[in-house]
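pipeline/complex-builder :: batch 7 item 3
reading input block
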Amino acid sequence: DAGVIQSPRHEVTEMGQEVTLRCKPISGHDYLFWYRQTMMRGLELLIYFNNNVPIDDSGMPEDRFSAKMPNASFSTLKIQPSEPRDSAVYFCASSLAQISGDTQYFGPGTRLTVL
Amino acid sequence: KNQVEQSPQSLIILEGKNCTLQCNYTVSPFSNLRWYKQDTGRGPFSLTIMTFSENTKSNGRYTATLDADTKQSSLHITASQLSDSASYICVVSPLSGNTPLVFGKGTRLSVIA
């Protein structure tokens, strides 16, 4: 398996623009997670899905953030409109079983810069 | 509140030397504790995992220890190599299977020649 795949790897956009980040989890994994990483706050869980269903989105910072998982092999994280404070590295991760009981495999991340 | 604190924030050592990274946590009860390594520009990957009943776990030159009584863990790196330069993140799993992982902010290790 190629592991968790994310695209794009880098995204530079202007404030107010819509940004869409994409993720393909490892085949067969039931859980998918979206994280944001900054120097100040480290890794923060934004939302996670179980079998394509959003379970906990309490980490999503604002209504400007939304995530979907239309099928088992694809998920998106959308920011609309984007703001400079959204600049961070966004990681997607997947795991086979329980949210905390199983190893999570991370993708390479998308580095987002909002000007 | 569940928290994981790591120290030091950053560390510079000479190639070939040993070092120890520290992790203190307040997560209780917990099911396991992991150390992740994150190379620059990449996602974290799991180095070691210990359940609450384990005291030590090794993975090559990496040895993790766990003291559940004092809620402390350490990661010891022996005979460091340039490729060990990375961030090391301590992650604690609450016992409840549906509670998210608790991440430390990591220790940034630089190994220099």
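note: The CA atoms of residues 4 and 104 of chain B lie 5 Å apart.
queue -> next item
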